[in-house]
Amino acid sequence: MLILIQLIVLAGILLIDLIWAKTLLLLVYLGIQSIMYTLALYKDYRLIIAKSITSLAVVISLIIMPLVLFFYIWKINTLSVAVSFLFPAVLLLLIRYKNKNKAMPPLLEKIKKEVSLGNTAYIYLIFFILFSVFFIYQAYKRSMQEPVTSIWEVFSPLYLAFVFLSVISLILFIVKSKKITSIHIMSLSILLFSIFVTAAAVFNINFGFDPFVHQASERYILDTQTISPKPILYIGHWLLSVSLSLLSGIDLTYIDKYIVPVFASIFIPAFIFFALIKFFKKEKNILISIIAIPVFLFPFYFSVPQNTSLVFVIMTISSLYIWQSKKLTALFFISTSLVHLFSGIALAIVGITHTILNQKYIKKIISTYKKQILYIIWLGAVFSGLYIFSDINLYNLKQNIEIESIGVAGIYILKYLSFYSVYHAVYLLLLNNNIIVLLLISLYLLFFIKTKNKDNYFPSIIITFTILVASNILWPYIKLPFLSYEIYDFIWRIWFISLSLILIHLTGSIYMVVSKINSYIGRYSGFVYIIILSAVVASSTYLLYPRNDGLVKSRLYSTSRYDIQAVEWIEKDSKGKDYIVLANQAVSAAALHKYGFKKYYQICDQGKCTQIFYYPIPTISPLYKTYLDMVYKGPDLKYIQGIKQDLKIDKIYFVVNDYWTDSQKIIKKAKKMFASYKAISDGKVYIFKTE
């Protein structure tokens, strides 16, 4: 019967043209599948709505696999996407599961119990929602199409007061409730969404370069039903975005832009909650601990496959504890690998090591020397953290301020700290984040030392901490010439993967701190503790995004409407002839946004030929090096002649944004060198051309 209903709903999605109706039916369709899997995967139907969220992740993972299969053996069109979305429902019918013969539970009665909270709790919930909605509203109200380096240029840090107040309201809502329901877990999702979505709201077009590359690839697949050569690294992320856009009718740009903030907000609280209740019993303290997740500064505010895969990594590790099912863990591992292969490799290392450590003779050794091994892990974590403390975490800060040690390795104070505003004090949290993480690790290891019957999870603890330690120690020795321009970004990716592997353990550490504090606090001291936790979360929200203030100078500007106007003018001015553009990455991103992978040219050197995109691509394009020579060394015809000679193209455009350092000097010199130029929006962007 449910299959028939889903077929009817799926047919409605395919036949109806109204976007809002298609989207609503798609949500209903996924909701039905989630409920079906919840009834199959769980024996206890308490918190059934929250459990359906974890089941939705199972459904999405099952959808990704046939999508990838269709992509490699056929193509991505309406039929292949519809079959892929129907696959989880058909699979559930074919699998014999334990709940098979159980009668359908009274779902309406179960859901009704989920909203019975008590009048006082409802008041705090209303305040929490009002503060969160207002914060999100202010972000969208300040949506910018201007070039900015940080959301805090247009979004006053004073609005972080609403994050602060929403966290206080949420904690009081949790504490004052008679019991924990799905509403509490969903409230955590609202909090995280309000934090993660802010950048997506303010950067109206987008920020950085990578999101535009992935969106251009997805749009190419949407338009042509395939892409060549067929990639391996990111295909799961691409196809998920394409299929959601194809079925809902929502523009692909918006689907891709919000997929990570939405996934991170919805899935992470539910998965970590249900993983931690396997260890801990005080559900209220678990929820309060999850509130601190923004402290770890995961970059879930913009969508790239790396960030999508981090969400899947967290779900994979959590599934190991929630269901204790190798099949489900393997499912999440496969979906993670399809979303981003490198994250899948990290999980494979965890899985292989976990299997080895679970061998009987090794397990016996581990059980005998458990305390000693944990002490060794703790010492390794401490020393590795201290080893890298001043090199990675302070890399950007070192460019602007001087730092000196005060005698204890890894603990720093600022030699000179000019507080332009009180909110700059939040940098003290960033400077000491490794120390905080190591303290949390120590607390969690202490929990394992003192707790019995945890041998089944012990191998996972060993390998996750080992990866974290190894990534910390080995990063200075990583030599990747092809990533020299982004080596620190690459190192941070390793760091975030290793951190995501132990996020459950770190949240468990916070739980221990929360529980210990709760056992001692009274009415007034408890309120002080709530204020401190709320202030820390609000501070981490400020640190989460690119910043341009008295301490850190961000040099990366968001893509603006002026950049789009520039690429549109160039395309029109070229009149269909071949041309090359020398511009910064914001302009190149605008070209990808408007025209995708429209043109490539071939450049040959000593018999070796490579394809060159007609706009500069940072890190891999010789055009970008030429552009940097033009703006840093000054415009010179020798650079233009070099491009003409290499690519055999006469029409070359040189673009200068007014925010570039010494832009007026560059523009003045370029006016004398080039045949003509065009000023966009009263000089926001200057375009020079050779003919």
Notes on the structure:
This protein is 64% helix and 5% strand. The protein contains 28 helices and eight strands. The strands form three sheets. The chain has a four-stranded mixed beta sheet with strand order 3-6-8-7. Strands 1-2 form a two-stranded antiparallel ribbon. A hairpin with a 4-residue loop joins strand 7 and strand 8 (685-689). Helix 1 (2-15) packs antiparallel against helix 4 (78-94), helix 9 packs across helix 10 (235-248) and helix 15 (341-357) crosses helix 20 (458-474). The N and C termini lie far apart (69 Å). Mean pLDDT is 81; it is low at 388-420 and 481-485.
Provide a compact summary of the structure.
The chain is mainly alpha-helical and 691 residues long.
